[in-house]
Amino acid sequence: MKQQQELNYERIAAAIRFIKENRQEQPRLETIAGHVNMSPAHFQRMFQEWAGISPKSFLQYLNVEYAKRILKQTHASLFDTACEVGLSGTGRLYDLFVNIEGMTPGEYKNGGQALRINYSFAETPFGWVMVASTDKGICHLAFVDEGEEEALGSLKQLFPNAAYTQCLDRKQEDALSVFYRDWSKPDEIKLHLKGTSFQLKVWETLLKIPAGGLTTYADLATKSGHEGACRAVGTAIGRNPVAFLIPCHRVIKATGDIGNYHWGEVRKEAIIGWEAAYFLLP
Description:
Helix content: 40-55%
Number of strands: 8
CATH topology of the largest domain: Arc Repressor Mutant, subunit A
CATH class of the largest domain: Mainly Alpha
Structural class: alpha/beta
Order of helices and strands: HHHHHHEHEEEHEHEHEHHEH
Number of domains: 3
Largest sheet: 4 strands, mixed
Strand content: 5-15%
Radius of gyration: 19 Å
């Protein structure tokens, strides 16, 4: 049975999708609320509790001109670490406590036979997720859209011979706390990831994009030391095994368009707006 937070997110996602599809008509609050079968007052209150701002203000973070401005600011911040250009220092905490350790070949050979993986399911502001960990750190975090069995099956395709136990451990708790903007709990979130040297470098570079910030494929390629390799960088982003913590949702098109996302374009817009509302509000 779905929990209330997941139901709320589904309504918010439906509202975002409806507004996008009817942007030219600029639908009123009453029209949007009616689309998700809620009263205007109830919808406004639910959205405010979720995002911290009104639906109207939230949508201002999803227009092209806003995205272009943040791209310029984040570009300056990424290429000059002494310059924060107005982006909240809180968003920089990703640099401080999320650390990637690459798996050794011995850890993932023979289908991950040497690995013991704990996994669990949890609700987040963006829907149901599955999070998995080894004894060294988080190895997988994925939004669950097709069902829990399918989500676990996708993980087992990566490590078919690992030993799996369904349980919530401290590493997972620390990782999940980030969804609730609780920066006080974890001293460090460790990620234990299977990937090539190129992929690991791209994922590490993604961690340097501050929450509330945005970047482009070209900037990310340059910052990761592979200038011009936009297509390869895009492939590495698509293979990111840890949703949200490694913030591939912050990579958008140079035009300011949000672009595609492995977990759905609407979810990407929801995350970008949610982060902007928290980290960029004065």
